[in-house]
Input
Amino acid sequence: MLVVSLAAFVALCVLQRAPMADAFVYRAEGAAVVAGGDLYGFTVTEWHLPATYPPFAAILFVPTAWLPPLALKAAFVAGNTALLALLVRLSCRLAGLPAGVPLVCAATAGALWLEPVFQTVLFGQINLALACLVLWDLTRPPGAPGRGVAVGIAAGVKLTPALFVAYLLFTRRTPVRPRVRTREGLTALGSFLGTVLAGALLLPAASVDFWTRRLFETDRVGKVWIVDNQSVQGLVARALGDPSPGPAWALVAVPAGCAGLALACRAADARLGVLLTAFTALLVSPVSWSHHWVWCVPLLAVLHARGRTGLAVLSAAVFTARTLWLVPHRGDLDLRLPWWQQPLASPYPLLAAALLTAAWLTLRGNPAPDEYAGPPPLSIRTGAPAPRATVNCPHDDTAPRVPTRHGTAGEPVRRG
Output
């Protein structure tokens, strides 16, 4: 099934002569590092695309500078397909689902046609790699050596995942080991700062240029009001018919960001916390192109694992329907959409807002858990969820007790 799906995708790319423009931007960044050129002074492809990532990312792109165009495209298609399979497996690990090879291959074949994933592969983007870095790190057991390093690296490549650093810093719910979460957050922060330092040492001029100037040039990334931008700023710009909504979008984005992070840190279920952080980051980022929303893959896995089949089907339909491309979007038509087309033009931020609202309704009135528990570990051999030790209510005289170094545990378990 995966071979057929991938063959159909490649055939479609060939027929449509997919340019994979972003891959060529990365290639140009790598070439600028090798040649010592101006990293933020060039544009490539017929769309005149500039470099927009921190200097550390350009250093990682150096190997692409030596690939001819056809090999570059093939490498990105093959690499992103492998990363999608890895993301599916990590999503199963997050959700506590079995992750056998047949299931992973079948799910990868289907996920390839989700609009964010499809666009990521089509453009030659790195969204799947960043999602895999973050999800691999956060599905490791709390206190695992180096937990947080991969999150910091992902934030150093592309700033949007930086909200996960805040998530690790502020989610401190381990009474037995109260310093674990703080250490993980500081590890992620230190890892991110290490990427900034590496960029400054190897590309000092580019680093000064990016962190003092280019970082604040939102228009450099692209027009914020086009339907491609599925963030709050894009939604507000299209709703107001204003290409530069100014502080208006911040009036929505700032409260949404604070509320989303607070809900993520308060969630009893670590799966929900990870997803809320991801979707909050995409929601409040000034620019979240539709292909950034590859976090739809773990979302579908978690909804399925929680028995929310109807919601999983509805979410899959939202990420497959491509309604944002059905509304008029040539030229400035994005700014003149009637009210009934506005939801079609902004399906992803509306879904993220619905997720935050549902989480708030679920968590309202529920106290924060006494102990953080990551996603259930998977058996290496079977891929099935391994049994997790539980702590039983002290009033349940029939339930067995769990011995600890401090005596028999007696705190109740709160289920999220």
In short: The beta strands are 403-404, 407-408. DSSP finds 19 helices and two strands in the chain. The first helix runs from residue 2 to 16.
